[in-house]
Amino acid sequence: MKITLLAKKIELTDDIKSYVDKKIGKLDKYVKNVIESWVELAEDKSMKSGKKFRAEVQIKLPRESIRADVEAMNIFEAIDLVVPKLKKRIEKIKGYKERPRKGRGIKGIIEKETGL
Q: pTM to 2 decimals?
């Protein structure tokens, strides 16, 4: 999976880069045909809630894209919290695609009523 890493008001160290590759790269086993993924890490010092770091991830697939963002006190914590959100959205999309199509529409209603 190709990961484009963007940083706003934060210095990207090798530790952060390898951590993002490790965590976001794990999503490869859940989704096939990933075109590209973008990870944006930012620091906002003006937040009153105390959550200063933001991680935003967007994964581009052939027909759709998946996006999630999280704010946290630590950059590594933000990365850790965004991964489960992405997994949940991936499972939701996969559930829609793998649902059986039989029984939908007029033909399905007729089959249910007549028992054919």
A: 0.76
